[in-house]
Amino acid sequence: MHDATRTLTSAMPERFALPQLRLGVVGGRGTPPTTFDRRLLYVGSAPDNDVVVEDLSVSRTHLKIEGERGGFRIKDLGSKNGTWMAGCRLVEGLLTGPTTLRLGQVDLLVEPLAETHEVALSRESRFGDLLGESAVMREIFAHLAKVAPTDVTVLIDGESGTGKELVAEALHRHSRRANGPFVIFDCSAVQPNLVESELFGHLRGAFTGAVASRVGAMAEADGGTLFLDEIGELDLELQPKLLRALERHEIRPVGSNDRRRVDVRIVAATNRDLLQMVKEGSFREDLYWRLNVVRVGLPPLRRRPEDIPLLVRHFLDDAARREGQTRPMSIGFDTMRRLQSHPWPGNIRELRNAIERAAVLSSGRELEVDVAADQPASVAPADGLAVRFDLPFKDAKARLIDTFERTYWERALEAHGWNVSAAARATGLHRKSLEYVVRKLGLERPGTDA
Asked: Which of 168, 186, 359, 436 pairs as cysteine with 267 (C-beta 3.0–4.6 A)?
């Protein structure tokens, strides 16, 4: 094949038609049979699954269904009570027609439909600084490659440490604005009373302490891309001003009567459920829809373990270059298998830290990583609320808040015999709100884990 033809072919994504899938719980509590046009779906009792099964016999993440050429691959994810089909326990199999699966004590309808949708998978294992050989990441790469050259607003969501900033940088680098500025504004790192000034700028004397005029982040990003990180942390009172700036493409610095036109592409990111925040009234619905023009959802590392070998090799190569070594350390099969089975709550950031730390501490040329014993530096005050000092501030803060919420609600529910209504009354929360918290945190009464 000619080099130019080979280059063109590798740049073109792999495309195929995939049937829509009708999937859902039959005659039980949970997601009813619903039509999906996504390639990858997760089923389980935890609220973050695509299909939620509200039954104690179903594991938190019970199975995944992944579309490929020729059908849908169903894989049990180590569930306690198993996935069954026609009386046989299913570990992994390719589904080509309709069937009913048995998950614990619940029936799940799985029905490919006649209607199809196109799936595009990149042939590359990276996009910008994002790495991944898994189908889910190559699907994201193909999506990003299509979106990047446009000026469309993008909303990135995913857990902390999944690479949201890398997505924003890659979108900018592959856009017509690549020669313009790329400005990061972290909504969680600025005091609420200073956000407006930092975002839109201010004039000298506009408020106490404003000894000089300041250009805000939106003006700095003029002609380029503004990355609004942790957009879910933006104060509710400031959201209308941001919406106005996005709609009119103009800003008014604090203390000024004049407005300035800006040409800025917006990429926003969050690790929170903005739609739920809209329902709760803590995030404006009109701003949500203004930001959610194109959504990019990044999977947690535990849901893409096949990418861990590539990421580990990349981190080892980086470590070798920094240390001036001619070749990186090797890693054994058993060690790699342990890394792939570890849940990595801190996602790629946690994996990178673990590999870099192990590269320094290993005695030979083979990497020695004991993920079970690899505990981060922390201070553990009463009730086990440990502060993580090996993480960036916003990640350590998010982890601490999550631990606090989980500990608080577990104790509140335990004190009231896991009666949600009684616990809600005692803590001053609406029952429906506490039901959402229980689902969000995946809280279960001890002894009911499936």
From this structure: 168
